[in-house]
Design goal:
single chain, alpha+beta, five-stranded mixed sheet, 9 strands, cytoplasm
Length: about 250
């Protein structure tokens, strides 16, 4: 069981923002709690984001991979493994660990996990696929891109429906990413095709700053050209703050 502080008392715990935060925290905690503590697998290269002797970072392994998309276009991506699984023969398999969470089955036409998960796990997964198809497709593609041999998912439910700060693990399920993609009707070839179309569209545009936005009501992605200087105010504020800190340090040394 994990304790989380997610929302203010004057806000509803089932608002979209709070539900998103709840799912994010559950995924982060679950992916670390199911690991065997003290037994780590190390890659040849150290973690590029660790500075100093900080040993309290989350368990993750980065794998950089490159694909050729044709027409002299190469894609380089930093993919992630959440853990390794050791077989009896000592062979290691990389896995991705994710968590599906139940918040209130009465509000999303779902089934009660505590009563139905053991006997109707397929129905529970089908309901999650109906309500969160994009999330499951994303997890599957991430596992495929990383080359993970397994995708392990946990079913996490609120300890009490009226309290989003305490959760309990109901069960787990393990899939082979390629087989799971076929099970949820995810076409990997179509996913690569969509990516290539977006790249081709971007390559045709003049140099500048653009925003890619998914239309909320249609299966359409829109590309917007942003005016010059958009979002630059935040960067300027950061630069100003760093300059102020530097000048303060200089004054202190004097």
């Amino acid at each position: 069981m994990c304790n989380l502080t997610l929302y203010k008392q004057d806000e509803g715990m089932n608002t979209p923002h709070n539900l998103a935060m709840e799912a994010t925290y559950i995924n982060h905690n679950f992916s670390q709690q199911v690991l065997k503590q003290g037994d780590k697998h190390k890659f040849e290269q150290s973690n590029p984001f660790v500075q100093g002797d900080n040993g309290n970072i989350a368990s993750v392994g980065y794998r950089y991979r490159k694909w050729s998309l044709g027409n002299n276009i190469e894609l380089v991506s930093r993919t992630e493994h959440d853990a390794v699984l050791s077989s009896s023969s000592g062979e290691l398999s990389y896995i991705n660990v994710k968590a599906l969470n139940e918040w209130d089955y009465r509000c999303c036409n779902g089934v009660e996990w505590r009563r139905k998960l053991d006997s109707q796990r397929g129905s529970v997964l089908a309901t999650e696929l109906k309500n969160n198809s994009s999330k499951l497709a994303k997890w599957t593609m991430c596992a495929l891109l990383a080359g993970s041999e397994y995708l392990k998912m946990g079913y996490v439910s609120r300890y009490n429906i009226q309290d989003s700060s305490k959760h309990v693990l109901i069960g787990t399920q393990q899939f082979i990413p390629k087989e799971f993609a076929s099970q949820i009707n995810l076409s990997v070839a179509n996913a690569w095709g969509i990516l290539r179309c977006i790249i081709d569209l971007c390559m045709k545009q003049k140099e500048g700053k653009y925003l890619i936005l998914k239309d909320p009501n249609k299966p359409v992605i829109r590309l917007y050209l942003l005016p010059e200087g958009t979002f630059s105010s935040d960067e300027e504020d950061e630069d100003d703050n760093s300059s102020e800190e530097e000048s303060t340090d200089e004054d202190a040394e004097k």
